[in-house]
Design brief:
This protein has 489 residues and is of the alpha/beta class. It contains 21 helices and 14 strands.
Length: 489
């Protein structure tokens, strides 16, 4: 059994595992990434590793940063492995394609040493700060879409002598860059939401303004925030994934990352201090990301929500089980084609029919073994971003909303907290304390759930959508998810 550390990898190699052919000692940090999780390590870190392997991007190594208490595990695993980890592509036929990734050249844990994080961001070599802090991690007012200075912890962190949160740390580092005339910087969100760069701009400019109006003006002038569309299904790492790596390849990795073969990154070319040549490794660098964002969020992500709640209620536990069910597959394809696709702008270079077929095939990949529990996490944020914009556009133009209404009804039934066999469903949502009681009242008090304005706005007052929602929900109560889906397939 070989351990995953630099000396072992370079001196011994690992049969069947692709390892870096470049000298990591010569790689300098140019990117600081906040929120090192599975997706970052299967996406941005993978692209930078590919550039390094090609002899490029020697100034663009990544320093990972953890800001949450739970990030101590990532600190410990990466520390023991010299920052190395294994990215394992899981093919539909069960084959595994492992690659040791070497682009993560440092890792800092903010609770241990916030000063080190601030100085790393303030350092002249750092030219990009990238983020995966989840869709709900931004201090945004859900009603207005603007920066919310009253979001939990924001004001306290900005005012703290030594900040510890992502916004406070970055604001302090930007203040030092301004004072030292270090130069401009790019903040690059890799989170899965429409206009992620625009959202990051509102938040980080707002935080800087809250700290010092002059700093806010400097950030507005000198910091850029490119939008991007990111796509790769990356399920949570399971013990079985570690065991497979050890048994089939003789490699011990404390936290490998598993992913599907497909990957896509569409990135707006708006960088204040240069960037890696991402286009050399397959990234689509474009002037306008919006059409690609709409396509991905409203087809892939919304369809994930469509299969997540209804599939779970029907007894499935994995994405591929739902996608391989012909009735569910027909329902999902119908949602994409009839309800989501008509709301999209033309997408350069993309055949939307082919893209939809590809999505069903990706979902049906049993090798990925992505759980419905994972994709149902954070429902209130995801439904708001992925599905409800489709509903509102279709209502405005008189288009169909029946399948989307059934998805919302499925979420309501799921949010009650028990499945169709009476087994408990753990609710992992920041609004669960408000929404679960409303979901349970829905049986005797119609539209109690849909009437929750922080998520649904005015939709309970729209007779067409509210009616479709209630019909689907009554069917779920009386006949179950499988029969309800069959009616709409």
């Amino acid at each position: 059994m070989r351990s995953l550390d630099e000396a072992a990898i370079w001196s011994e190699g690992v049969e069947g595992v692709d390892v870096p052919g470049y000298d990591r000692a010569g790689v300098r940090t140019g990117i600081v990434h906040i929120g090192v999780g599975g997706f970052h390590r299967a996406h941005l870190a993978m692209y930078v590793d590919a550039l390094l392997e090609a002899g490029e991007a020697r100034d663009w190594g990544i320093c990972g940063v953890g800001v949450l208490a739970a990030d101590d595990r990532m600190r410990d695993v990466l520390g023991a492995q010299d920052g190395l980890y294994t990215l394992v592509r899981k093919e539909s036929d069960g084959a595994l394609s492992p690659r040791v990734i070497g682009s993560l050249v440092d890792y800092l844990y903010a609770p241990d040493d916030p000063e080190a994080v601030i100085e790393r961001i303030a350092h002249p070599d750092t030219r990009i700060v990238s983020l995966t802090i989840t869709e709900g991690g931004y201090a945004i007012d859900q009603k207005t879409g603007e920066f919310d200075p009253d979001s939990p912890g924001v004001a306290d962190d900005v005012a703290a002598a030594v900040p510890t949160g992502a916004f406070g740390l970055v604001a302090e580092a930007l203040a030092r860059r301004r004072a030292r005339d270090t130069g401009p910087l790019t903040i690059m969100s890799c989170d899965n939401m429409q206009g992620n760069g625009d959202t990051a701009r509102r938040v980080f400019t707002g935080v800087a303004q809250l700290r010092d109006p002059d700093l806010g003006a400097w950030v507005a002038e000198h910091v850029t925030f490119p939008n991007s569309m990111v796509d790769r299904i990356t399920p949570a790492t399971a013990d079985a994934d570690r065991d497979a790596l050890a048994e089939r390849f003789g490699l011990h990795d404390g936290w490998p990352v598993v992913c599907e073969p497909f990957t896509q990154w569409v990135l707006e070319d708006d960088f204040a201090a240069g960037r890696p040549e991402f286009e050399r490794v397959g990234v689509q660098v474009v002037d306008d990301v919006v059409p690609y964002e709409f396509m991905k969020l409203r087809l892939l992500n919304a369809t994930h929500q469509a299969l997540g709640y209804l599939g779970y209620l029907a007894g499935h536990r994995y994405v591929h089980e739902v996608a391989q069910d012909p009735t569910f597959a027909s329902f999902l394809r119908g949602y994409m084609n009839a309800e989501a696709a008509p709301t999209l702008r033309p997408v350069p270079g993309i055949d939307l029919d082919e893209y939809q077929d590809t999505l069903i095939a990706r979902f049906a990949n049993p090798g990925v073994a992505d759980t419905l529990k994972r994709i149902n996490f954070g429902s209130s944020d995801r439904i708001s971003i992925f599905l409800l914009p489709v509903v509102r556009e279709q209502l405005a133009q008189g288009g169909p909303v029946e399948r989307a209404a059934a998805v919302v009804a499925g979420w309501c039934r799921y949010a009650e907290g028990t499945d169709e066999q009476g087994e408990p469903i753990e609710q992992q949502d920041r609004l669960a304390e408000e929404l679960t009681p409303l979901a349970r009242r829905e049986r005797s008090e119609p539209l109690a759930f849909l009437g929750y304005r922080p998520v649904f706005g005015e939709l309970a007052e729209d007779e067409r959508f509210a009616g479709a929602f209630r019909r689907a929900l009554e069917s779920l109560y009386a006949r179950g998810a499988a029969a309800t889906v069959a009616d709409l397939a």
